[in-house]
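Researcher: I've got a protein sequence and the SMILES for NAI. Could you write out the 3D structure of the bound complex as structure tokens? I'd like something to compare against our soaking experiments later this week.
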Amino acid sequence: MSVIQDVLAKLQEKDSGQVEFLQAAREVLTSLEPTVSKHPDFVKAKIYERIAVPDRAILFKVPWVDDSGEVQVNRGFRIQFNNAIGPYKGGLRFHPSVNIGIIKFLGFEQIFKNSLTTLPMGGAKGGSDFDPKGKSDGEVMRFCQAFMRELYRHIGPDTDVPAGDIGVGAREIGYLYGYYLKIVNQNASVLTGKGLEYGGSLIRPEATGYGSVYFASEMLGTRKQEIAAKTAAVSGSGNVAQYTVEKLIQLGAKPITLSDSNGTIVDESGITAEKLAYVLDLKNYRRGRISEYAAKFNVPFFANKSPWDVIKEQNLKVDLAFPSSHENEIEAAHAEAMVKNGCFCVSEGANMPTTLDAVDIFLEKNVLYGPGKAANAGGVAVSGLEMSQNAMRLTWSREEVDQRLQGIMKNIHQSCLEASEAYGAKGNYVVGANIAGFLKVAKAMLAYGIV
Ligand SMILES: NC(=O)C1=CN([C@@H]2O[C@H](COP(=O)(O)OP(=O)(O)OC[C@H]3O[C@@H](n4cnc5c(N)ncnc54)[C@H](O)[C@@H]3O)[C@@H](O)[C@H]2O)C=CC1
Ligand SMILES: O=C(O)CCC(=O)C(=O)O
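Model: Sure. Here is the predicted complex with NAI in place.
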């Protein structure tokens, strides 16, 4: 059995039931296969085995009181996966589906993503099975305070710096940071995605979506193509989807879909800047459903369908796809239908939105396929820039941060291409991203000895 297969078999045995983590581990580790023969030192130091086990997993209870006075108890998680190249860094997810397998997959992916940015950040992820949907602001605040009441002792500007993810946006970061400040009494860079008034960076809200479009633009450039005039499907309607659509519009593309957990809207005339402003108000302030867009702008709404279902069932034609919602939203049948309907470039705003079978189809059909750890790294990259600005106690302009973001996305794209070529899989961004992200972390781990 190869070293990699041996590690995967052990994970399967020890972590059975953590399906999303096992999926991510399989994707990453199998694509590291070509590194094994070139790095006997990694094998000897058991780097492949050690990198797949978190440094520590913190599980805690989060008791809080709802508006009716009833006590509620949620599960809290922070998985500090690997800090070989910098403080632990990665978002917090509040969603009822959250469990240890999901947080582990996200934390594992974060190691390689953060390494790709070239900034000094280790990998971590956290969250809770708390569902902010339908809760009052007061309930969300009390939950965030209860969550921070435990989390504060595990984080710090040089230890671990969480941020947002699904269900954790500007409102939640404000409540979390406000409570940290209250109990620790230190204005420290312990969270990113902060408001501009209290240490946040310009462009952080936009960064993941913008970065995913910049990455697509780089991929298209390898075929002498550009974003302008392309039709694009975007899933989700949260932070990543919103700013993906904004950048697509700015670059002259036509985004035509958005979705949420109730269904998908298709606006074949194109989502414009004015319509997007409506979505931002709907989702970020009124906290309504995307079906309201369909009623307001008189376009079709497909209940309980994703954009990928609609492409499959209605033969909707698109050139580009930006899955920006959640893991495993694109399955093999979707991938087949997307290719059949003209999609030739997929840039993942979400983490692991494509199943392994579907990834194989994209690769077989020569689709420009940018895996999340490369394509959506712009968010954590600008989080890294927020930490730098906090450390220097100054703020950079919008233009400066956006320039740096564009430079980082270009660089990630180049590193993926170079690593894919060096390890015999030219043009395969999955292999390229995994190997390029892995090598830096592995070399740091090797330098430290057995710790
Ligand atoms: N916010 C960030 O900076 C980054 C986010 N990501 C990833 O991007 C994706 C979206 O995150 P955000 O936009 O930040 O979250 P968000 O909470 O702002 O929006 C999430 C969107 O996905 C939809 N969604 C979530 N779970 C769903 C499900 N099970 N079924 C159908 N729809 C579902 C929600 O309705 C919402 O429209 C996630 O995979 C996240 O891990 C990746 C990198 C950075
Ligand atoms: O900005 C960050 O620290 C983390 C963003 C994130 O959670 C992700 O890249 O998936």
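Model: Residues 89-91, 113, 163, 165, 192, 351, 379-380, 383 surround 2-oxoglutaric acid (ligand 2) (CB under 6 Å). Residues 3-186 form a domain with the Rossmann fold fold (CATH 3.40.50.10860).
Researcher: Great, I'll pass this along to the crystallography team.
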